[in-house]
Amino acid sequence: MVVKEATRTIPRTSVLVQQLDLPADLSWFNDLGTEERDEFFRGLMIVLTSPQSEWQTAVESHLQHWQIAVGVAARQDRPVLDVIRVYQPKPRKTPFELFVETVHELRVFEEEYGMTSAEFYEKFQAGEIEEGPWDYFEWRSLYGGFLFMKETITLRRLYDTVSHEV
What is the pTM of this model? Predict the structure, then answer.
């Protein structure tokens, strides 16, 4: 017996369709569709390219990432893959390119919602803004990344200034 998809036939014994006997904290996996499971295992294969000494931490992080994504997708009534793709690693860019891209993406949210990212983040963190639309989750993550990059750039400039004076 097989499960037929539009692009391929998958045996019922495949981990992509089989219901697995899992611990309660991993039971969310059985609710994933074949496309979602395929994406899960692709990510797992990437994780396993990390140094072997980091596998346990990397695999735990991958599982936690997916578990959170499944929860967010359920609360937001969005497909799990939409949630996962927000956090997938992007092609490597220079720090400057990444910073400029992040600022551009923040500007789009600011124009759409009529407030600065700093105002939004402060209100969201204070609980004055509910989870609301999916955009809020993405906006919050982008702004958190922006703050990290801004702090890193500031510290790097400070270091460069101090090291040249010494």
Answer: 0.48
